[in-house]
Amino acid sequence: MLEKVNHIAIAVPNLSESISNYKNNFNCVISKIIKLPIHGVTTAFINLPNTNIELLEPLGYNSPIKKFLDKHKNGGIHHICYEVKDIDEAVKRLLKNKCKILGDGIPREGAHGKPVIFIHPASFNGTLIELEQI
Ligand code: CO
User: Fold this and answer.
1) pTM value?
2) Out of 31, 87, 89, 109, which residue is the most buried by the measure of CB atoms under 10 Å away?
3) How far is the CA of 70 from the centre of ligand 1 (A)?
């Protein structure tokens, strides 16, 4: 069911500092900054030949990454995103297998304008997993 790793997301306390860090040290190509109020994050993507790195900065008071950054002040790896062909089918299977999906389990539009869901880390060895329909 899983296709490519679409991106690995890193929570950062300061997005512009983090972008400069990647640009200065690795000469990376970085996307424009995208504000996603519905997800409580501001993001930028580092485009690599085989995947992308998503830098995440909290946006608003109820940002889902605020708690993570309280625990990991300097930032850290936050989630991994796999591509799937049929997200509704994936959700159905996960629920049948008693996996916990965050929120109401209804796919929402993610950073690429495609439907995404998040699976609770308790269901996958402490790893927060995002599925994105491609
Ligand atoms: Co993501």
Assistant:
1) 0.91
2) 87
3) 19
